[in-house]
Specification:
Elements: E1 9-13, E2 19-23, E3 29-33, E4 37-42, H1 74-117, H2 120-126, H3 147-164, H4 170-176, E5 180-193, E6 196-213, E7 217-222, H5 224-227, E8 230-236, E9 242-251, E10 256-262, H6 268-273, E11 290-296, E12 302-319, E13 330-338, E14 350-352, E15 358-363, E16 375-379, H7 380-391, E17 409-414, H8 416-422, E18 427-433, H9 438-442, E19 449-453, E20 456-457, H10 461-468, E21 476-483, E22 490-497
Helix pairs in contact: 1-3
Length: 503
Amino acid sequence: MYENNYPNNYSNHTAEQDSVNYNQGSGNTYHYETGGSFSGANFNGGAGGSFGGGAGSGGPGGKSAGKPGKNNKAGTGKKIAVAICCGLFFGIFAGLGFQAIDTASDFLKIGAKNVQSGETDAAKENVQIGDNQEDGATSISYDNLSEEQITEIQKLISNQVAKTTVTDVTEVVKEVMPAVVSVNNRYIERMSFFGQDFSQEAGGSGSGIIVGKNDSELLLVTNYHVVESAEELTVQFSDGSQSKAQTKGFDADKDLAVIAVPLADISSDTMSQIAIAKLGSSNDLTVGEPVIAIGNSLGYGQSVTTGVVSALDRVIGATDSMQTAQNADTEVNTFIQTDAAINPGNSGGALINIKGEVIGINSNKIGGSAVEGMGYAIPISDAEPIIKNLMEKQTRSKVAESERGYLGITGLDVNQETASLYGVPLGAFVSNVTEGSAAAQAGLVRGDIITAINGEEVSSMAELKEEISYYAAGETVELTVMQGSPGGYQTKTVKVTLGRASQ
């Protein structure tokens, strides 16, 4: 307990013999003298503390009897007393306010520590309200609370602590960066000038996310347009090492693909430095929530941008880049919109929340360069079932172009608009069959619509060509074909032994 053992005395005498006497002791007496008077004021901080004052006196009109024409100085004394009281009350309540804030802060810190370490039982048994912890922090008591209440409190604490640390994302990035890779695609670009066909080797780059592994492969997810038509895929890990990859499966309509890197091609040092990403839930996102985008921006290497969720469930038609504007097959999907910068090369990279969970797969293809401050990502809750399905597919290698099998057809895409207008299925429409080709020998005719090859759905000629590129001449494939009849289109299965391009 603080005590003042010094009886502070203050005395002020003016030329007019006005005086103020302040004595702090057991009586704590205030005395003011002038033509008007203020006396007998007592303040006691004990249990029976009191504050009182004698009445000032003056003549008519509020003038002092001793000094006519002057203001009654009793009013000034009252103002001083009121100011002192206000100061005391302000100090008391301010102190209580700061103590409350400090206690709440300690509450959040201890709660977050328990949530992150998973020490729920220890928290319930050992944590009590008070300042009895060694670090001096105010602790939390979980006594007399149900498991559901404890879970809700810890969730609230976790969310609150995460929200208060959003300005510093270094720890989150450090945790997630090893799970993000650069993907380089070497492909053959074909062009036609004045009726002559030309081809040349070209390259592109994007990003990918490590999502799992099996007994022999490391599995990564990326955008389909990042690996589209790839003759060779190379993955660069966070430590700078590179490995060849193969396409395991893709869904062109959803712009998703899973690629695989053989574990035998990855060194033990690299394996110790990479990580498998944690997938979160995009269904729990709210507009305004902070997010972080990580990817191989412009092909320069991994970079980080930050922003917020600008909008949810943005409905956008995604057009396959291999299709022409006239017969484009447009798939309408929903996306996360963010103002975190997503540039060329970021496609296939991770959009994460402040807990370090992947909540979206970035795509620079959507929106393009026509707008600023608007990037898009495929919601992870929509993508996850597709990713798991693609991870189960058999890894395939493309056959060298000189050995590649061919059907011997020309065709068109049956897009969504055409399918709705004419009541025909989506797929590759056979507009012509080359005489003597593999397709002709198998019985394909003009007007057939190919919808699958060996069970893999195809919705365009581009997808059909992509699938056939994994088969060599002489191999037999099974095509699912829709053929017209008086009763409408009928499904039939056709086995085709692929020929060579010269046939």
